[in-house]
Amino acid sequence: xxxxxxxxxxxxxxxxxxxxxxxxxxxxxxxxxxxxxxxxxxxxxxxxxxxxxxxxxxxxxxxxxxxxxxxxxxxxxxxxxxxxxxxxxxxxxxxxxxxxxxxxxxxxxxxxxxxxxxxxxxxxxxxxxxxxxxxxxxxxxxxxxxxxxxxxxxxxxxxxxxxxxxxxxxxxxxxxxxxxxxxxxxxxxxxxxxxxxxxxxxxxxxxxxxxxxxxxxxxxxxxxxxxxxxxxxxxxxxxxxxxxxxxxxxxxxxxxxxxxxxxxxxxxxxxxxxxxxxxxxxxxxxxxxxxxxxxxxxxxxxxxxxxxxxxxxxxxxxxxxxxxxxxxxxxxxxxxxxxxxxxxxxxxxxxxxxxxxxxxxxxxxxxxxxxxxxxxxxxxxxxxxxxxxxxxxxxxxxxxxxxxxxxxxxxxxxxxxxxxxxxxxxxxxxxxxxxxxxxxxxxxxxxxxxxxxxxxxxxxxxxxxxx
Length: 467
Fold this sequence. Notes:
40% of the residues lie in helices and 18% in strands. The chain folds into three domains: 9-60; 107-289, 2-Layer Sandwich (Endonuclease, Chain A); 306-466, Endonuclease, Chain A. The chain has helices at residues 9-29, 36-48, 50-60, 89-97, 115-128, 144-158, 177-185, 253-269, 306-317, 333-344, 360-365, 367-376, 408-413, 424-439, 451-466, and strands at residues 104-106, 108-112, 132-137, 162-168, 189-193, 213-216, 220-224, 246-250, 291-298, 322-325, 329-330, 349-354, 379-383, 391-394, 398-402, 406-407, 416-421, 442-443.
């Protein structure tokens, strides 16, 4: 048998050397810093399987965009000052140092754990828009929900509202081209984020936009963990809706959402603006007395891993409790260690995950982390159905809710959007919701894995961290 080409050992070694040199140049010059386990995985794949590893690295190896510069920190009043009441000083100081927009007081914040109500909230926001609508989602399915949302978007455009829809190119595989044509025919601007065929040689195929928001007129924003597909909202015969969370905020947080969307919209075209437009929400007489909230975007467009940094800091500042719910729990070692340390110093920690999620690889990869948490004394519970909500509550000071899962992809690769809530009412609502799901769940029983399962869990976890 004759191979179509062959390389001498010297040529093969040179090819491997070039691949490793390419890895060093991309990661160091391009500031693509990685967790040690991820770096080892890439180096080993390039060294041992160079003809597969190098093309995969070129297609999936980018973690940060070259233009993701560290922004100037925002000044935060000293602890005890008037504005320090907007949130715990340690969180405000950290997020300010990471260049995150400051917290703002809002007229109202309403959470929703019911899918049908959440869908009505979204449609109502779109139907009330008079000037502009910006909508970003990972999935816009060609089903009952996608059709209703698309019809509301087209109605808004028909009233003369500027409507823009940003769809992720991978998540958008569930979006029919017919639906997109209908939207565009109705006057809706539609843009695809990171098209696969346009990005493979630029290393950005793996950078997906997982943010979920719908902002209208700089006044209202709908956000949370729900994609725009039936399983997130509607009970169907034999298929109950997934448990999830969303919220509607009326106030200046909507202006921050428009600003985030503006950057993503430009990124999708490959021409980011030098500075996002400073949108000012209409003044509200009750805003100064309203609930404090803060958008916390994270992803390749930020120099720092903002959500991960906030979760780490929160774990070490926690004193009375940590409550968390996530569909996929595959944290890297630093966050897992921080949560285990919190448990060992006496902080009660409750984690709610689905007994079986919609991704079997995630269920396999999470077992090591679940066993470690359980051994440290955490209350780990398995919800009997699919739960897709993403929320974390720390003491009575901070609550997070949004799109980011507690896994490597969300915390280090995806474009994600969480919102930090500092008001006592909002923190209490999210804490009560998580505790209610925990009461409906079964306790996780940690069992020592067999040798074969332990190896397979490690392999799946390594692959999951990359992809």
